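W.,

You were right to be curious about this one. When I first looked at the sequence I had no strong expectations either way, so I just let the prediction run and decided to look at it fresh. Below is the sequence, 321 residues in total, followed by the output.
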Amino acid sequence: MRRGIAWATVVGSWALVAGMVFAQPPFGGKPGERGGPPGGPFGPPRIPVMTALDANGDGELSADEIAKAPEALKKLDKDGDGKLSREELRPQFGPGFGPRGPGDGPGPAGKPGAGRGGAGGPGGRVAASLESSPQPKDDAEKKLLQVIDDINRKQGRMLNVPAQDGRMLRLLAEAVGAKTVVEIGTSNGISGIWMGMALRKTGGKLITHEIDPQRAALARENFAAAGIADRVTIVEGDAHETVARLKGPIDVVFIDADKEGYVDYLNKLLPLVRPGGLILAHNINPRMADATYVKAITTNPDLETLFFTEAGGLSITLKKR
């Protein structure tokens, strides 16, 4: 009991400190802007405790993330001495996954280069923060967006993709005219509903794999509430085994499961992805990305990979034609 209270105190204190730090406009900009100092393309310095607790990178701590706080904090203990040293708690800048391209570096006096949307617009004006929100095209899309809000409010985030990542999934699936989308890691169906918006237009289907029966059951209810159950097949079991039953061609693969298993999923699914298809992986950020997976998608000449570093982080890999 005392140990539980101690952990709760530590988590609460550090979450408060991290929240105060994140609430301050870093380096003269608003939270989330890219106007910080040099330190890699992943923005301002990251507070290790906060990023360890915020598993999906949405800037909030869900009940599930708080429950898993002790396990997450132990991962910061790099030397295994049972304590977190000053160095292990030091804010860090996230390293990039490759060399900077033209315009990606900082401009004069630490300002962002033109390639990052900083100074350099017409008349030398500094660009404002670029943000947008979903604009439903019809009543069906409006219903899907409302269902997503309802699920998040009633069921919690459950390590689901943040809205920005969900919108990117929808955009990419619709852009390639996806007929077959394979998802590894259903959770309670939020990412599937985002992609379902695209599949309504492309006439496609989603085959989603989930190892947890309770989450699979929740996902079935949520897909039905969203009106896309007829486009979704839920496969229960260990996806490392169940993907062996899949057949190509696959247009889009979305991986959001055990991070150390990403390479195995890639090796098994890449042969089934059509030329011109996409392999998307979630939580590809400096804290959570598996280095072996990042190397696999950035050194294969048959692939072209970019990183979407907003929200939880997403790698976007094209299988070249």
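Here's what jumped out at me. Residues 32 and 43 are 7 Å apart (CA to CA). And, maybe more interesting for your project: The longest strand covers residues 273-282.

Coffee later to discuss?

I.
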